């Protein structure tokens, strides 16, 4: 009977190898096959064995190396041929990482799956910028949404942002104008503070601040590029951002 390998869905965190879990680092170092996203940093990929086969399935907006169903099929094929596969994802596999879809297809094919959590982009950005996503004086609720989901204008975002709440938007750079328009149409104040965090927790991280009404101009003027998070809420107006930027410049 042919041995069936295991698929490991591994979170690579926001890019700094120091932010990997110990288990993630061990799996990367011993893996024979690594199927990785484009957001996985070169420093993390360099931890792989020289004998390891690295397969990139990088995705960019409207341009995918492989469609998701083919990625799922690739993982299953490698495992059914007896190889353990590390599916390496930026952030956490189950937060906008489509790890749930990959796990479902693997289980349907009779392939065992293990999930290794990673520091999500939001957690990494919060730590690097010292923005407390929840704060006793400013926010007791935090929500995560995808900014490029289908039917953005039809989504009900009312109540996700406002006084006492923090909204973190993934993949929202291209749709920043629609996001700002939608949130204001749903009742959010135009002067609600926002922060845009580009390349969170990396050496080239940038943080820019403004108000909700000026979000589209902010993204355009600063030439923000993905990966970037948009954080909306009173927590972004606290002094911690200035302190974090000072610390980042000192580190450089």
Automatic annotation (TrEMBL):
Keywords: Cobalamin biosynthesis, Methyltransferase, Porphyrin biosynthesis, S-adenosyl-L-methionine, Transferase. PROSITE patterns: SUMT_1 (PS00839), SUMT_2 (PS00840). Pathway: Cofactor biosynthesis; adenosylcobalamin biosynthesis; precorrin-2 from uroporphyrinogen III: step 1/1; Porphyrin-containing compound metabolism; siroheme biosynthesis; precorrin-2 from uroporphyrinogen III: step 1/1. InterPro entries: 4pyrrol_Mease, 4pyrrol_Methylase_sf, 4pyrrole_Mease_sub1, 4pyrrole_Mease_sub2, CobA/CysG_C, Siro_Cobalamin_biosynth, Uropor_MeTrfase_CS. Residues 6-215 form the Tetrapyrrole methylase domain. One of its GO terms (biological process) is methylation. GO terms for molecular function: uroporphyrin-III C-methyltransferase activity. The keyword Methyltransferase applies. It comes from the Bacteria. The keyword Chloroplast does not apply. Its EC number is 2.1.1.107. Belongs to the precorrin methyltransferase family. This is uroporphyrinogen-III C-methyltransferase. It comes from Erythrobacter insulae.
């Amino acid at each position: 009977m042919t041995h069936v390998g295991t698929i490991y869905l591994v979170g690579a965190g926001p890019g700094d190898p120091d932010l990997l879990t110990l288990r993630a680092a061990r799996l990367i170092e011993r893996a024979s096959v690594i199927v990785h996203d484009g957001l996985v940093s070169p420093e993390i990929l360099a931890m792989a064995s020289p004998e390891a086969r690295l397969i990139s399935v990088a995705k960019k907006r409207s341009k995918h190396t492989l469609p998701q169903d083919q990625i799922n099929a690739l993982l299953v094929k490698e495992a059914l041929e007896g190889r353990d596969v590390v599916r390496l994802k930026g952030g956490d596999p189950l937060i906008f990482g489509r790890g749930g879809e990959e796990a479902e297809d693997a289980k349907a094919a009779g392939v065992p799956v293990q999930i290794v959590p990673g520091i999500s982009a939001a957690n990494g950005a919060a730590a690097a910028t010292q923005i407390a996503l929840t704060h006793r004086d400013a926010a007791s609720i935090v929500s995560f949404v995808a900014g490029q989901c289908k039917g953005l204008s039809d989504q009900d975002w009312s109540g996700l942002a406002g006084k006492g709440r923090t909204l973190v938007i993934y993949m929202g750079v291209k749709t920043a104008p629609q996001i700002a328009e939608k949130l204001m149409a749903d009742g959010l104040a135009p002067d609600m503070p926002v922060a845009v965090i580009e390349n969170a927790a990396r050496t080239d991280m940038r943080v820019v601040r403004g108000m909700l009404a000026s979000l589209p101009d902010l993204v355009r003027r600063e030439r923000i590029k993905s990966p970037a998070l948009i954080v909306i809420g009173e927590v972004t107006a606290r002094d911690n951002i200035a302190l974090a930027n000072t610390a980042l410049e000192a580190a450089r």
